[in-house]
Amino acid sequence: MGHREIYSNAPLALTVVELRHTASTTLSEADKAGLKSLLASTFPIYKPAQQVSITVTNAGASEDRTLYPRYMTRDSTESISFRDNAIVVETTRYKRRSALRELLRQAVEARQKVSPVDGVERLGIRYVNEVRVPDVEHPSDWERWISAPLTSIASLHTEDMAAQTWQGVTVFGTPSVGVVLRHGNFEGYAVDPAGDLRRQTPAPGPFYLLDLDSYWTPGGDVPQLDWASIEERFNTVGLSAYELFEQLITDHYRTEVLKREQ
Predict the structure, then answer these.
(1) What angle do CA 241, 144, 3 make, to 5 degrees?
(2) Rounded mean pLDDT of 247-259?
(3) Can you give the pTM of this predicted structure?
């Protein structure tokens, strides 16, 4: 697979793994206690999370709020959630793919011991990067740090009015395997520092969002949810995002920021 460098100053603000599975019944209190027991060594804190669904009809919009079990580390930087249709792992202190894979393994094995689900519908790994660099005074300055295919729009202007902000969404691959890239130049934060998951909080200011959702969905029959098959898919999905990220940044950014000694 070749050498893949681990950057000391990676711009990752949040990493999310969503393993979507066939619908299941709501977990009982006994199920939640069983999950807590199995995960307690790494995720001892039980802190339910809320999922909000909004339905819009001709009569107006209605909002449905659902609580689902979530287990967190003591430092609140990692969590595992169990929804009726998904297992979700989140971390704000991503170090390497193997460590993230281990968290997912714990979550899958706990779920299948307590209340097994029937099959897998989608595996997605999302990497939310906030690229922050020195000396960005104008939007056009991003071309030194972010690859030209994303920033070339800054060269357009009309009647002496230059582009100030831009956003884009691009899908690479097929409906079964691919990466969804969301990008653009923003101010502030993509991941709320005041959220339930704690994160290192840089000073607010301009940043370039590189939000990659790398995914796999099974074609044809719905496969069983077992760790052996998920592990193989996890590695492939994670590497796809890495390879795309390397094309989205410039060598200047690698040298001046990612590899810079702190």
Answers:
(1) 35
(2) 91
(3) 0.90
